[in-house]
Structures are given as structure tokens and as C-alpha cells.
Design a protein that fits this description.
alpha+beta, 2 domains, seven-stranded mixed sheet, about 20% helix
Length: about 200
């Protein structure tokens, strides 16, 4: 680790890629998650190797109880809901944290054009693909059930836009929303979303 710091391969001891306490803190690990990890693996005077997934489980378990939920789309593709009014905007009520009843809610704008994750769409999907594919319904989290009717590609065959229709009787909380749909997708409004810097750390 010292060599990494001295040679400038990382930005100091608190670089989020470093397995140091200050690095873990910058990466988003809470003190409680680290304490729970230590309690789970137990105390010993002998050197031992523990799977990193145990530490990752501890932070997921801790943040699941306390972190507010927000929506972000990292690799977006535009979805146009063709039968939704062009000038209409609805505010969808979202739970801040489904694990905490008293965490409250926040509102998300919903309009005719939205972004979803590119990986959530497949034109020729296998049988067990439960996300968006032509002719099948999916649920937009906190909003409506929609069905893909087609897509547009560029000259290289890359999908640039997906066309869908929505069922106005399936707004979350309405009786029609109880219809069984296997896939639920997160989304953001194409008109109202903001650019953000997202740091994704893998192993």
C-alpha cells in the first residue's frame, strides 16, 4: 500500500480504492457496517482471510435500513411513451426508504419521454428476460405499466430510442396497478433529469 501511495498510483491513503479505514469511509462505508463486519467474522490473534463479500454484505445491510432511495440511470436509452400527452407532467410519489415507515416520501416528475437503463431492454429477449422487450409489459417504479411497441436504431444498429404505450389505469396505487407484471424498471424523466458524476467501484 505504501508503494501505491509513494508512486502516485492512488490519491493518498484515503483514496476510495484503498483498503484503509479512511478509504472505506470515502467509499461510503459507515462505522456501523465495519463494526458489524468485525463482529460477524469474530476476533482472533491469528492471521485469517475473509471473503470481501462479507464486508459488502455488512454495508448493504446497514444502508438498507437508513439510506434514502433515489433513481439514477447510468447508461441511458430514451423511451418515448407515444400515447402520453406531450405537455403533461405528473409528480409521482416515491418512498424515501421502504424499510422505514416514518422515512417519508419524495416526488419525481414523470412525462412523455423518460430514460431507462440500456441493459433493461432487449429486442430479441430469451424466455426468462423479465425486463423490457417488444410486446411485453413492464412496470415503471412508482408510475405506470407500459408496453414496448418498437425501437429506433442508428446506422450502426445501436438502439437510440424505444417506443412504448402506457395504460392510464395502472398508476401506482390504483386498482389497475395490481395487474401481475414480472418486471419493474427504475427510470428518470428525460426532461427534468440532471447530469451527475457517479463513481462505480468494482473489485
Amino acid at each position: 500500500l505504501l508503494q501505491l501511495v509513494k508512486e502516485g498510483l492512488v490519491n493518498g491513503w484515503d483514496d476510495p480504492r484503498m483498503p484503509t479505514l479512511c478509504g472505506l469511509r470515502r467509499r461510503g462505508f459507515t462505522p456501523e457496517s465495519i463494526k458489524n463486519f468485525i463482529n460477524n467474522i469474530g476476533y482472533t490473534k491469528f492471521e485469517a482471510l475473509n471473503d470481501i463479500s462479507l464486508l459488502e454484505h455488512s454495508i448493504r445491510e446497514d444502508l438498507n435500513k437508513k439510506a434514502n432511495r433515489v433513481c439514477a440511470v447510468l447508461n441511458p436509452v430514451k423511451v418515448v411513451i407515444t400515447n402520453y400527452p406531450e405537455d403533461k407532467v405528473e409528480m409521482m410519489e416515491m418512498d424515501n426508504n421502504p424499510e422505514q415507515e416514518n422515512a417519508g416520501t419524495h416526488q419525481m416528475p414523470f412525462c412523455r419521454e423518460i430514460f431507462i437503463e440500456r441493459d433493461d431492454f432487449m429486442e430479441d429477449a430469451p424466455k426468462k428476460f423479465f425486463r423490457m422487450t417488444p410486446g411485453k409489459e413492464v412496470r415503471l417504479k412508482g408510475a405506470y405499466i407500459i408496453m414496448c411497441t418498437g425501437c429506433t436504431k442508428d446506422a450502426d444498429g445501436n438502439i437510440t430510442e424505444i417506443q412504448c404505450t402506457y395504460d392510464p389505469d395502472t398508476l401506482s396505487g390504483m386498482e389497475g396497478a395490481n395487474r401481475k407484471v414480472k418486471g419493474t424498471l427504475h427510470w428518470v424523466s428525460a426532461r427534468h433529469c440532471k447530469d451527475a458524476e457517479v463513481r462505480v467501484y468494482d473489485r
